[in-house]
Amino acid sequence: MSAAKLLEDLSTVLPRAVYEELRRSVEGLDEEAALRTIYRALRLYVRSLIDSGEAIGIVTAQSIGEPSTQMILRSFHFAGLREFSMARGLPRMIEIVDARRKPSTPLMFIYLRPPYNKSRDAATEVAKKIQLVTVENLSKLIDVDYISYAITIEIDPEQLKYRDLTMRDVEKALSKMRGKGVSIETEGNYVYVKLEAPDMTKLRKLRDKVLQTKIGGIKGIKKVLVDQDRNTGEWYIIAEGTNLEAVLELEEVDASRTYSNDLHEVAEVLGIEAARTLIAQEIRRVLQDQGLDVDIRHMYMVADAMTWLGKVRPIGRHGVVGSKESPLARAAFEVTVKTLVEAAVKGEVEGFRGVFENIIAGRYVPIGTGIVRLLMQF
Amino acid sequence: MSRKALGHVLGPVEVSILSKEEARALLRRLHIRPWQLPWIRASDPLVKAVGAKPGDILKIVRRSETAGEGVIYRLVVPG
Q1: Which fold has domain A133-216?
Q2: Which domain of life is it from (chain B) (predicted)?
């Protein structure tokens, strides 16, 4: 068999990266050297494959768990950007693995299309566009009169100018609240809100609602920061608060690289595969930040387990572990008595097909050579 | 809207729907039943982008640091 033919056959069998590297190493070699190289590489590759029955679950758990014990328990501030902090270290790790609905520090990394990513000013323009602007942000003075049930708001004209807004925009945004016993009038830089009914609670609620009314920007985005990538020099935006769906719609935004650190949001907007990649990336980031080096395979494993059923599920009794078939395995995990009692009431049957339950019962465990069952023919 | 899923760095490199024969061959090769494959919801942006429906099996080629590219199959599941 010629080296070239062999390589061609291998192109479908070997992983892409391995095949590419082999092909490159063989280039320019004579036939005999090429064949020797290929066979050697093949032997190494086959030897490196994992054995059937290898207990990868426990290997993964230990490989990530042990370095985690070295993690210092504190959350850092973004080096150099003192304006906001990002959840790091153990707390973030727990957030990821527990598949928390909303991260404690929701952030978006917004990459921009050229030419918006070429200069700080251009990026800042986009950032201003994205940042949520509420009536509260624009107001200089807010006066609530509990006697006449009126709210007077003085708008700061400088703020208006800075955000490229006018009183017209303010009026338009607030006009939706007219009616139902509420009247809204604007005069110069003042907004007068009056409540017909003498209701104290309603007045307070109205005040909050008016102040939170969005005038501009994208809902959910609180603070924005413009930063320059150290290596590529491109300007990008970091935003506190996430609204992936809306931000990706903007034409200035590079929708192929922008992401958020909210797993569920990414799963919803970009798909479960993207969420899987994000999980692995985020776990790796947490460990790397702490100076710990763990092979990415283990993170892939965790990410795969969490995304197996098409949505992001926590490890733990509300997710991956909680959905185990075996009552004994579940009971061995967390809420022991409740699990056993409910299993008994439901009439559950233990199938003894997994690892935990067989360990508990002292039987052969379906791991390694234990996954093989012997049949005799006689 | 589902356009976003396909181009993204976090997402896969390519997605395709397996034909009935390809699906059957895959399941036979792995000795498994369809539901034993990883799942992907019908509401997933990837599924919408490629026009698959529950029961289809998707072939997903994802980026991998260890293997360059890795192939995985997902069963489309309602929901």
Answers
A1: Gyrase A; domain 2 (3.30.1360)
A2: Archaea
